[in-house]
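haha ok so turns out i had the wrong file open the whole time. this is the CORRECT one, sorry everyone. sequence first:
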Amino acid sequence: MQDHTQHAGHPDHSAHAGHLDPTGHTDHSSHGSGGVSWAMAARATLHCLTGCAIGEILGMAIGTALGWGNVPTMILAIVLAFFFGYTLTLRSVLKAGVDFRTAFRVALAADTLSIAVMELIDNGVIVLWPGAMDAMLSDVLFWGALAISLAVAFVVTTPVNKWMIGRGKGHAVVHRYHH
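then structure:
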């Protein structure tokens, strides 16, 4: 009988015995091998998109409602996107019983590149979309451009997350804390 608790050069995952994670696999053998599925990358990106969308929508809505200019509104939206993106990850890692300092480091390692790419694409689409930066909350253009920009950001960020997870980076560092 072969012992599967630790593979050469691979971390010990014996604490996960019987653990079935949201990706549907238990052996974790694909980490670092590049054998990451598109579904796994899409789930990681969707997690990132959730926090980004909350922050982005809230920031754009607050800035627009207060009559702020485009630059301060976009800065607020980006700051809130990072805040909510990190907060969602922190929440799940802290729930696993990890101390705050470690959880914060995990959130930074897991989400920084993903959120940055998502925000670059999302805000780039909004800036380049004619009239989107001047649309008001009551305009269909405001909500339509925002929704499409988030969808484009998801499509562009998914391959980035697939690449990172395949190398044991990004969402892969959070994976061990999922219960």
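The chain has five helices and no strands.
again sry for the mixup
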